[in-house]
Amino acid sequence: MQTARAFDHKAMQSSEEQFLTFRLHGQDYGITILKIQEIKGWDKITPIPNSPVYVKGVLNLRGVIVPVIDLRLRFGLPEAERDVFTVIIVANVNGRLAGIVVDAVSDVINVSAEQLCEAPAYEGQENREFIKGLAQVDGKLLVLLDIDRMVNPESLDKSTAAASAVAAR
């Protein structure tokens, strides 16, 4: 039996929250701006053997090894060709940095508690635990993601450890 997860309106009772918006497979998404470290253009990624398919590898971000996750693959969407709009969003996930590959970034927007609603529950949805809620902004429905739930900390640990082992050789 599936139960609907209530949107955490308490966290947004007093004011608006800012979200970085981006596009993925024609859909608009948002991640709270407080989790974003920086945005990089698409760069060469060093693949790490035996990583989950959605972990594309690692990049060296000024001496910090950062695992890079392809959000399309994480959501079970087809992989896309990289172009000038492809970016890596470097975010603080569960206390560590992770890069997230998206099709393009859009804007930083303010979302008030009145604009938020809970994502509907339906049977067979696999990625619902990643959805923090929905927001109606400027005529578009934005899917707000919970990045801490979206990125598996175990995958980050394995990728970072493998990259460190390769670098030590």
Report on the architecture of this protein.
- 14% of the residues lie in helices and 42% in strands.
- It is mainly β and 169 residues long.
- It has a six-stranded mixed beta sheet with strand order 8-1-2-11-10-9, with no helix packed on it. A five-stranded mixed beta sheet has the order 3-6-7-5-4.
- A hairpin with a 2-residue loop joins strand 1 and strand 2 (27-32).
- The protein is globular.
- The termini are far apart.
- Residues 1-6 have low confidence and may be disordered.
- Main-sheet strand order equals 8-1-2-11-10-9
Overall average residue pLDDT? 83
What percentage of the residues does DSSP assign to strands (E)? 35-45%
- Number of helices, where a helix is a run of at least 4 consecutive DSSP H or I residues: 3
Unreliable runs, pLDDT <50, ≥5 residues? Answer: 1-6
Using the alpha-carbon principal axes, give the shape. globular
Give the N-to-C terminal Cα separation.
50 Å
Give me the strand/helix succession.
EEEEEHEEEEEEHH
Helix content: 10-25%
Largest sheet: 6 strands, mixed
Rg is 16 Å
Structure classification = mainly beta
Quick rundown:
With 169 residues, the protein is mainly beta. It contains three helices and eleven strands.
Give the helix/strand layout.
Layout: E1 17-24, E2 27-32, E3 36-41, E4 55-61, E5 64-70, H1 71-74, E6 87-93, E7 96-102, E8 104-111, E9 116-117, E10 131-137, E11 140-145, H2 147-150, H3 153-168
Features:
169 residues; mainly beta; six-stranded mixed sheet; five-stranded mixed sheet; 3 helices; globular
